[in-house]
Amino acid sequence: MRQRGVVLDARRTDMVLLLVAIVWGSSYLAAKTATVALPVLVVLFARYAISALACGLLVAGRRPTGAEARIGALLGVTQAAVLVLETYGVAHTSAANAGLIISLTIVLTPMLDRAGGRGPLPPAFFVAAGVCVLAVGLLMSGTGLRAPRSGDLLMLAAAVVRAGHVALLGRLTARHPVRPLQLTAVQTAVGTVLFLPPALAEADALAGSGAVTWARLAYLALFCSVFAFLAQTWAVRRTSASRASLLLGTEPIWAVAVGIGLGGERFTALAGLGAALLVAGTYWGQAVERAHRTTEPPNVREDGCPSTTPTAA
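Given the sequence above, the corresponding structure tokens read:
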């Protein structure tokens, strides 16, 4: 009976992690459709403001410490930069492409996070990264050789900035223990303040938005941000990092499924090949990096794994 309970608990944890990946994968289409009705910076303000309100209610009576406030303020700025690039990017490319290209964070983060006495990454990791670069080229080519869309380039920039954000998050939280919910509350408050001025200039557009637009904004804030982060934090404490990474790493697959199934997007043969190569390359690179990290001396800290670290999706 006890063994059956353990199995059920493991399945429940897997389902929660898979749900987080699905929610994050769907966020690209939700953001894309929201930017059709409202300017990008107004969408970001509403997403942050709703998230900040929800986090404020959850942390009521448990104020952030000085360290949490300082780290959250810095990470709030870098997270806002990621979301600006992501949201402008998805507004000018397909939701499927956006979800696939941003997954490059998985192989970019270990390259940026080489502090703490870690040895050089094995050659196989760079081969996997090369496969990912080739895949992105195929995704950007669309129906053939042509100039890449601005949205694809913005998503590529977002992947680089997000990798830096994740690496910075790992380093700062390793030095100063913080509570995840309080840290998230500070970041959402910072983002709300940053995007308030452009939102004020478009206050009439935001106030006049229809129910469908507000539903998309609420989904981005409450499900893709607050719920996904809290569910991820709950689940990763109940399973291994490898299993969590495997399940959360399905995010780009769901981005493609939602983009094609609900958004009516289409893939060319080249783009489909690029999608397959990118998913394979990121999984391969992630596996190589994880194996390299777990075989290092025990005094080397373990951080910077993008699939088990809060993201800005």
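The two ends are 39 Å apart (CA to CA). Try to locate this feature in the token string yourself.
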